[in-house]
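Saturday, quiet lab. Running sequence design on the structure tokens for the scaffold JK sent over.
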């Protein structure tokens, strides 16, 4: 027996009558059934984003209209559908969403109809903040960090110092918003939140991959930076270490087993960065000989043309995710 409500069926029938295929597909993707949007509806909407005769503003506005519902199920599925299209649809949808002054205004959303509505409303508020931040990141950087080219010749590994120091905090903000979703395994109780979590999981792996490669690039450039750049880079690296812990906790919910066993960087790396900055600022070092060894060792490792796996020195930075 179908789980669609009478309201869902009436709405779909109305869109069939008016001839709005996109509105009908959005309606069917965001029914009151407590399950993720059906693949056939998502696939159709992805196809629409690639059709030049389809109005992207109309598609986006139709999704946004569904978030005005009082039902946590409909709103959650509208967010999931939007996220799915951000990930797999044509880039022009992301461009349009990023161009809007406002996207989702769900900070006060609350479905009081049932206990489950109270619980799921919390995650709707968090999820909408992440999607807003994902769109904002695109606006600021003109790139989707989860889709950019990776590897030794990828975007983050070849970025210059000035742009790198501006870009890494943008990635940090997006990752923060994602990790704030903060579910535990006991709260993944239905097909709707499970679908959202899996999309977030995929984004977290790809987003962290870009973040990770940017940090590697930054460390390789660190000892050639100006004093002010070193200050910013050091703070970025400290923030990165904190995000490692949070990401590890997030991924445990999905029972991820591909994380490296040791996520704690050797203290000598952070100390070397701090000691180098101290020397630029003319501050006295407690142990000049030890500090000098840290800095020189780090410089040699980062600049060595034969060093292809820096994880031997800072295992926190090179993670063997499958993404």
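Result came back. Writing it out in full:
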């Amino acid at each position: 027996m179908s789980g669609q409500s009478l309201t869902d069926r009436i709405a779909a029938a109305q869109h069939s009558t008016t001839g709005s295929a996109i509105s009908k597909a959005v309606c069917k993707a965001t029914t009151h059934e407590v399950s993720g949007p059906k693949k056939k509806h998502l696939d159709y909407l992805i196809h629409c984003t690639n059709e030049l005769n389809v109005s992207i503003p109309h598609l986006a506005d139709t999704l946004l209209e569904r978030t005005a519902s009082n039902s946590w199920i409909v709103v959650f599925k509208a967010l999931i559908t939007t996220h799915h299209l951000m990930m797999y649809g044509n880039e022009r949808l992301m461009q349009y969403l990023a161009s809007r002054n406002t996207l989702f205004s769900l900070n006060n959303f609350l479905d009081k109809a049932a206990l489950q509505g109270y619980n799921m409303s919390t995650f709707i508020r968090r999820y909408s903040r992440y999607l807003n931040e994902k769109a904002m990141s695109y606006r600021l950087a003109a790139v989707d960090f989860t889709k950019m080219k990776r590897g030794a010749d990828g975007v983050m590994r070849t970025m210059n110092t000035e742009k790198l120091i501006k870009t890494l905090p943008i990635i940090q903000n997006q990752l923060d918003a994602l990790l704030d979703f903060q579910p535990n395994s006991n709260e993944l109780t239905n097909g709707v939140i499970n679908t959202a979590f899996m999309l977030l999981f995929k984004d977290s792996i790809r987003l962290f991959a870009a973040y990770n490669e940017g940090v590697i690039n930054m460390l390789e450039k660190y000892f050639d930076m100006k004093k002010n750049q070193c200050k910013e880079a050091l703070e970025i690296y400290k923030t990165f270490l904190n995000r490692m812990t949070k990401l590890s906790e997030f991924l445990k919910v999905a029972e991820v087993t591909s994380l490296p066993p040791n996520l704690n960087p050797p203290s000598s790396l952070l100390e070397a960065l701090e000691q180098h900055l101290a020397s630029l600022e003319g501050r006295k070092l407690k142990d000049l000989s030890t500090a000098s060894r840290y800095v020189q060792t780090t410089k040699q490792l980062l600049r060595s043309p034969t060093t292809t796996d820096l994880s031997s020195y800072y295992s926190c930075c090179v993670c063997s995710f499958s993404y």
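Notes for JK: DSSP finds 13 helices and no strands in the chain. The longest helix spans residues 191-221. Ask whether to fix the surface positions before the next round.
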